[in-house]
Structure formats: C-alpha cells, structure tokens
Amino acid sequence: MTERPPLDRVVVLIPTYNERENLPTILDRVRRAVPEIDVCVLDDNSPDGTGALADELAEADDRVHVLHRAGKEGLGAAYLHGFAWALAQGYDALVEMDADGSHRPEDLRRMLAAAEDADVVIGSRWVSGGEVVNWPTHRKVLSVGGNIYTRIVLGMHVNDATAGYRVYRADALRQIDLGSVESAGYCFQVDLTRRAVQAGLVVVEVPIIFVERVHGESKMDQSIVRESLSRITVWGVQRRVDQVRERLTRRARWHQL
Asked: Going by C-beta distance under 8 Å and a sequence separation of 6 or more, which residues neighbour residue 210?
C-alpha cells in the first residue's frame, strides 16, 4: 500500500444559501468535534443575511473563513470555488459538509482516519452501519434507486455516489480535471466520484448517520433530479461507447499481428 502524507491541515467547506438559523450551530459542532481544523463558509449572497452572520462568526474565531459569492449558482459551482481557494491555501485535505446539520460533524474524525489510507472518503448512508433519520419512504426509495442506477450505468463499486459528506485529499483533487466539471446540482457528487474512479484513486465509504434538516427548506427539487438522471445517463452511454471503441481497436491490432 502506498504511504500517503499526513493530513496536517484540513478545512471543512460549507456552502450556504439562506442558512442563518443553522450556521452558528453547525460551526459550533464542527469546532467542538475537530477543534484543530479550519472551516470555510461559501455563501451565495443569501438574502437572509447568512453571509453577514458568517463574517461575525469569523471575526470571533480565526479558524473560520468566509468566501462571498455573487449569487446562487448551484452546489457544484460553490464547491469548485472552495476547492480552488483551499488548494491555493495549501490545505492537505478538503471536507464537503452541508450547513443544515444533516452531516454530523461528530462523524468527521472517523472519516479523516479513513483518509489516512485513501484518496477520497465518502460518508455513506447506504452501506452496513449507515442510516438515514427522518426521511419519508419515497425519498429513501429515490436515493437508493438512484444510486443503484448510477452504480450499474457507470460501473462503479460505490454504494452512495450521490452522498455530499466527503473528504478529498488535495493531491487527489489535483489529479481530477476540475476545470471541465460543469455539473451544478447534486450530480456534481456523482461527477467527481466517477472522475476519481477513472483516475484510479482509492475511494472508500464510511457509514454515517444522515439526519434530515430541522430548520429551513431542502434545496432538492425536481429540476435537480432531472439534471442528475440526464447527466448520469449520458455519462453511461459515453462509457459504453468508449468500451466498444476500445474492443474494436484491440481486435484490429490483433488482426494486424
């Protein structure tokens, strides 16, 4: 097994849009759970004043940083902005975490421990030991079904490719062509998963307990589901075409021998 460098500097990236009620609580939980790491809030110009509150919290804690974005451009765009900033700052690992408390900071130490021997760690709801709290049955069916479809179509041995609680080693992100990522919604997570797998990176899943938000409204809607289904299907077709081309190329070379 390849020995990986230690994760001395870690930052948690938290995208926000109208999360004023949730932000103080999630920041406090992160700082209590893993006090030695930094946090960066990525605010999309929230109308409810989340960005201004984040600035106040950052003034009181030098391990909290804030990046203000012009407007709401999607989860993927927010994370790409955060990735670029964090890589430029020299962090060893970058963590994706929701602001609404659905991703428990108390699970982060286990995920960081797993990252000692992996390039990407996914906090998984759909592996043994994983759990979802306060979700209706139809949403569980949608998530499980979507992940089964993704696994089959893209040929990935990942049970929760849509999961948004993750740890990326900085070196791993540098091996992924982030400049060509166009996914804006939640299929951003699937996109980065398939890119990591294609790059030959070590991707592991750690079971987590996912807790549905208490305050505010979910950002998930039908347009996000449609975008995800459409893009995953296109990626699957492209994968199949590439496989056929590769087989034809090998066959042509064999006939030339």
From this structure: 102, 103, 123, 125, 130, 131, 132, 133, 135, 165
CATH number of the domain encompassing residue 196: 3.90.550.10
Cβ-based neighbour number of residue 160 at 10 Å: 25
Q: Which residues contact 53 (CB under 8 A, 6 or more apart)?
A: 20, 23, 24
- In this prediction, what percent of the chain has a pLDDT beyond 70? 93
Residue pLDDT, tens place only, 89-124: 999 999 999 999 999 999 999 999 999 999 999 999
Give, as one character, the DSSP assignment of residue 239. Answer: H
Contacts of 209 by beta carbon, 8 Å cutoff, 6+ apart: 104, 107, 130, 131, 132, 133
| 197 domain residue, yes or no | yes
The arithmetic mean of pLDDT across residues 160-188, rounded, is 91
**1 within a domain of the structure (yes/no):** no
Q: Is 5 inside any structural domain?
A: no
Output the six-digit token pair for 107: 């699970």
The model's pTM is 0.89
Domain that holds residue 59: 10-256
Give me the number of domains the chain comprises. Answer: 1
Non-local CB neighbours of 202 within 8 Å, separated by 6+ positions: 117, 118, 119, 120
Q: Is residue 83 part of a domain?
A: yes
